[in-house]
Design a protein that fits this description.
Elements (H helix, E strand, L loop, with lengths): L9 H9 L5 H14 L6 E4 L1 H16 L10 E5 L26 H8 L3 E6 L19 E2 L2 E5 L5 H8 L5 E6 L5 H7 L2 E4 L19 E6 L2 H11 L17 H4 L7 E5 H4 L6 H16 L3 E5 L4 H19 L18 H12 L2 H14 L5 H24 L2 E5 L15 H6 L5 H6 L3 E8 L5 E7 L5 H15 L2
Parallel strand pairs: 2-3, 2-6, 9-10, 9-11
Antiparallel strand pairs: 1-3, 4-5, 6-8, 7-8, 7-12, 11-13, 12-13
Helix pairs in contact: 2-3, 5-6, 7-17, 11-13, 11-14
The protein binds glutamine (GLN).
Length: 479
């Protein structure tokens, strides 16, 4: 049996690398083989096999020479929204056909500087717009646990690849849940840090005041290890938080007696799958037994989080996606005969129906006659929600809620009702609207054996505390 079968988290692999029981080249060969064997999952849009084989032997030499950095031997996948210099980048869209990234995203640069290896770009919903990785130019991603079901979205390829042991961790993006929800659907840990904790330089923009890079991994420890490398101030992103970052790995050992709030409105929702409710309540009960204070509180603004989110992200998307015009990037319609047609035909042919719908909705809410009643109003509601959540977090360490309303759904479930798919984001958009750090952790399985996720929201830039609690939760729920 390949060694990697039992050592699929990087943390578990580290001692083997350190004691020279396995080389990075051997690990990479196993991962590439798995990718080949499981091509039907459609997790990758590009695998950089030749390059990673070459990179692996360089890292092996570094390890031998004792010159290796912290992530030496960690194999990472990037969502197809993250720049890797001189490699293709399409944001899951036809409109970026043949586009080659001219520079590294800050995230990529920091991973490489720490001796991590990039194995490929992973499939996703176009521009990160979706909750199932079905709105993907490269086709639907299948859930490795049940191939009739979605892997979640929009970072579905990233979740499927980690779960199927094709890489140790993946870097996704989370605008309204796209790291946490696929993590929940695939039984992984998915961390969305505070807005600004990780530089957005080199990430394809969807909604700039929400977009956050995030980490999908098997363990909280791997999340902490990667966050410590990619987070922190960056001269290329003014919205990146300027304070230095703490030692996240070291913080994992901290423990405490925590005050935890859970929101009545999240659990009394008729649309919530009963097993998810039961598992969330059991986890809260366990925390109480362990000596933590667990209180049920009301959060009447919950129902406004989703409309607020979709008004604001569409508005921001409509302006961000204006740059894809057939002149500067990627695809250009061959049927265009005038300049105006270059714009209109390129955009008509290059974007999917879902993306065009969002651009039009966004342009509508920003239009002179609608701006006040839609965009401005939603911005005000966003502030109200932020204040209300901050108020809760001034009294509690964490807010706990389900990650999703249901476990992984069957492919095509929402084909005729896209609005219903939007509602499935109900629980993840709250932390996004507020810009708070949130993590999805595995919390058992439903009767069909599909993973259930539980979400923990922490206070601004308190990722260290959030990760320490998450690691503790992992320990008390380990079977
Ligand atoms: N499903 C949400 C949306 O479509 C979230 C996407 C994301 O976080 N990128 O907007």
């Amino acid at each position: 049996m390949p060694i990697f079968d039992n050592h699929y988290s990087f943390g578990a692999l580290l001692p083997l690398l350190a004691s020279h029981k396995i080389t990075v080249s051997e690990v990479v060969a196993q991962l590439l083989q798995r990718i080949q064997e499981q091509e039907d999952l459609n997790a990758f849009v590009n695998v950089y096999d030749q390059q990673i084989v070459a990179d692996a032997s360089l890292i092996d030499q570094k390890i031998k020479a004792q010159k290796a950095q912290e992530l030496a031997g960690m194999v990472v996948g990037l969502k197809d929204l993250i720049c890797y210099k001189d490699h293709p980048l399409q944001a899951g869209s036809k409109i970026l056909t043949n586009y080659i990234a001219p520079f590294h995203a800050t995230v990529t640069e920091r991973l490489l500087a720490a001796d991590a290896l990039i194995i490929g770009h992973q499939n996703c919903d176009e521009f990160g717009m979706g909750s199932s990785s079905e709105n993907a130019h490269f086709g639907t991603v299948l859930n490795p646990l049940d191939k009739t079901r979605v892997a979640g979205g929009s970072s579905g390829g990233s979740a499927a690849a980690v779960k199927a042991k094709m890489c140790h961790v993946s870097i996704g993006t989370d605008t309204g849940g796209s790291v946490r929800q696929p993590a929940a659907f695939c039984g992984l840990v998915g961390l969305k840090p505070s807005y600004g904790r990780i530089s957005r330089n080199g990430l394809v923009a969807y909604a700039s005041s929400f977009d956050t890079a995030g980490i999908l991994a098997h363990t909280v420890e791997d999340c902490a290890r990667v966050l410590g490398i990619i987070a922190g101030p960056d001269a290329f992103d003014d919205t990146a938080y300027s304070k230095p970052i703490p030692d996240y790995l070291d913080a994992l050992n901290k423990s405490g007696r925590y005050k935890i709030a859970y929101l009545e409105e999240t659990l009394s929702n008729d649309g919530l799958q009963s097993e998810i409710k039961e598992h969330t309540l059991s986890a809260l009960e366990l925390l109480k037994k362990e000596g933590h204070q667990v209180d049920n509180i009301h959060f009447s603004l919950l129902k406004y989080a989703l409309p607020t989110y979709y008004i604001l992200v569409n508005a921001e998307a409509s302006t961000n996606l204006a740059r894809f015009d057939g002149i500067r990037y990627g695809y250009r319609s061959s049927r265009a005969t005038t300049l105006e047609e270059v714009y209109t035909k390129t955009r008509t042919e290059g974007f999917s129906k879902e993306v065009k719908k969002r651009i039009m909705l966004g342009a509508f809410v920003l239009s002179a006659s609608q701006c006040e009643t839609h965009y401005t109003k939603a911005s005000k509601v966003r502030n109200l929600i932020k204040k209300a959540v901050q108020e809760i977090l001034s009294n509690y360490d964490f807010i706990i809620l389900p990650t999703t309303t249901a476990t992984a759904f069957r492919i095509n479930s929402f084909a005729n009702n896209p609005l219903a798919m939007y509602w499935s984001d109900l629980y993840t958009v709250l932390a996004s609207v507020a810009g708070l750090p949130a993590i999805s952790l595995p919390n058992g399985v439903d009767q069909k054996n599909l993973p259930i996720g539980i979400q923990v929201i922490g206070n601004y830039f308190e990722e260290a505390k959030l990760l320490a609690f998450s690691r503790y939760f992992e320990t008390i729920t380990a079977s």
